Amino acid sequence: MLSKYCPECTTAKWDLGENCADFSIWYKAHKPECSENYTGSSNGLEVIAAEILWKRSVENCVMRYMSVLSDGDSKTYQGLLEVDVYDDSRNISKEECLNHVAKRLGTGLRNKVKEWRSRCVTNGGRKEEA
């Protein structure tokens, strides 16, 4: 599992002070079991995690994933295509999560209604006096 956070490190930084010699000594002993094993953007973490899972699927489970279910702005799909996880250029399909699609559609519609209301245009009913 990849993580950008370690609760033990956070507590030790708070208790000992991050720039303290005691923290350095503690961290050297803690580092092998530290759960903070990724530094970088959250989008990058998603791509690396998918790559690890897809590559080990053949070794551990003797199976191949054929499609990615993700939100619309995910870079995971493109990352898997670039890495060519199965080394044979098989096509990986991308499936959109309907909840994310509905959320983006709803947000877009609400923004349009707000935009048109600011122009004093209504969606039926009576025009409000300004």
Strand order of the largest sheet: 1-2
Q: What percentage of residues falls in helices of 4 or more residues?
A: 40-55%
- Give the SSE string: HHHEHEH
Please state the structural category.
Answer: mainly alpha
Question: The biggest beta sheet, please?
Answer: 2 strands, parallel
DSSP summary: helix tally: 5
So what's the overall shape?
Answer: flat
The N- and C-terminal alpha carbons lie at a distance of 57 Å
Topology diagram in text:
Layout: H1 7-16, H2 21-30, H3 42-61, E1 67-70, H4 76-83, E2 93-96, H5 98-118
Parallel strand pairs: 1-2
Helix pairs in contact: 1-2, 3-4
Can you characterise this structure?
The protein is mainly alpha-helical and 130 residues long. It has a domain at 1-39. The protein is built from five helices and two strands. The chain has helices spanning 7-16, 21-30, 42-61, 76-83, 98-118; strands at 67-70, 93-96. A two-stranded parallel ribbon has the order 1-2. β1, α4 (76-83) and β2 form a beta-alpha-beta unit. The chain is flat, with a radius of gyration of 24 Å. The mean pLDDT is 85.
Provide the descriptors you would attach to this structure in a database record.
130 residues, mainly alpha, 5 helices, 53% helix, 6% strand
Compact summary:
By secondary structure, this protein is mainly alpha-helical.
